[in-house]
Design a protein that fits this description.
mainly beta, TIM Barrel, Endonuclease - Pi-scei, Chain A, domain 1, 10-stranded antiparallel β-sheet, 5-stranded parallel β-sheet, 41% strand, elongated
């Protein structure tokens, strides 16, 4: 979830309105706040409270103490260059855009790399998804100024939108099928009804994930379950709506996962239930260039990969079958794509 990269900054005039906004945001799962120095809050364990006067962001309400960063208005390449040049390694560049937003942020992320953090402050909820996704990494933190609690609904609506899958579709040929014994298989039941062509991206290596179709089509002995994806073994990666990966074993109700269709459509849906059971598994191997990528799936008629012309059950796969998958950045740190050399088999 992108909530962990957001800092909610209540800026309403009425102190009670600001307290109400913090209270509601906590109930929505937000845990980082930037409050006015004169406001007093008793944060619960695990919550981060910063202090924001509209210009300076501090870790204590005391003036001229524990400064995190001072916001800089940026409207030109020269102003951005000046800010980045004076941002020391390990510190924070806090930017408020007054002109173009996306390309300058991509430039800032690319320039600073891992040497410093890039934070963005905005009072426009519509800007948040792009700020989180610039160059796949996005800003390290987005400080969102809200003057009333109702804007939390607007913010969450934008967070539910997906800019697009962070990879490209490919057809790969299955070249190996091996019984894999019993394994812990994870079923993902969503709170949405899925089309037969929709499904999750799943695989053993983050660099290439296979398209596992929903159970919107039944079999001769089972009814359709259009809310369900029989996703695969517990160790497998899947893709969340914010572009990060997560192990299937770590998915929880309420998580937003990315549902995709090889035709190009995509959307965010919520996990409603996770079922993990011991089931017979099959190891599917597919070749992409000189590399072999794998996915462990339940060996059953209702578990299907998206093939070249239709969806193919694991019980009907054979060497030479071409199936869809998505190539993605291989290196990940806590699910987020990073620039690093990595080799996953």
């Amino acid at each position: 979830m992108p909530h962990r990269r957001l800092v909610i900054a209540p800026i309403g005039r009425d102190p009670e309105d600001r307290r109400t906004l913090v209270h509601r945001a906590r109930k929505r799962g937000f845990s980082r706040f930037a409050v006015r120095p004169e406001d007093s809050f008793d944060p619960p364990p695990g919550e981060e409270t910063l202090f924001w006067d509209g210009t300076k962001l501090r870790r204590t309400p005391v003036a001229d103490a524990a400064l995190v960063a001072e916001a800089s208005d940026v409207s030109s390449p020269e102003e951005l260059e000046s800010l980045l040049a004076r941002t020391a390694p390990g510190s924070v560049a806090l930017v408020r855009w007054s002109g173009d937003r996306i390309i300058p942020l991509e430039n800032a992320v690319a320039r600073k790399g891992r040497t410093a953090q890039v934070w963005v402050v905005t009072d426009r909820p519509a800007d948040v998804p792009a700020a989180l996704g610039a160059l796949e990494h996005g800003a390290d933190t987005v400080v969102v100024e809200l003057d009333r609690a109702e804007l939390l609904d607007v913010l969450e609506a934008y967070l539910e939108r997906v800019i697009g899958p962070p990879g490209s579709w490919e057809l790969v040929a299955v070249h190996g099928l091996k019984p894999a014994g019993l394994g812990d298989r994870v079923i993902v039941d969503t709170t949405s009804l899925l089309l037969p062509t929709e499904g999750l991206l799943v695989g053993s290596a983050a660099a290439f994930l296979f398209h596992v179709a929903s159970e919107a089509e039944g079999s001769a002995f089972t009814r359709p379950r259009p809310f369900r994806v029989n996703a695969g073994a517990a160790h497998s990666y899947t893709l969340l709506a914010d572009g990060t990966t997560r192990y299937l074993s770590e998915l929880r109700p309420g998580d937003s996962v990315l549902v995709v269709d090889p035709s190009g459509s995509f959307r965010s849906v919520r996990v409603g239930r996770i079922k993990t059971e011991r089931r017979p598994m099959v190891l599917v191997e597919a070749r992409r260039g000189t590399r072999t990528y794998t996915v462990f799936l339940q060996d059953a008629e209702t578990v299907r990969l998206s093939g070249e012309s239709s969806r193919v059950a694991t019980t009907e796969l054979e060497p030479g079958t071409r199936v869809y998958g998505m190539s993605l950045p291989a290196a990940r740190h806590l699910g987020t794509a990073i620039e690093e050399t990595i080799d996953e088999l």
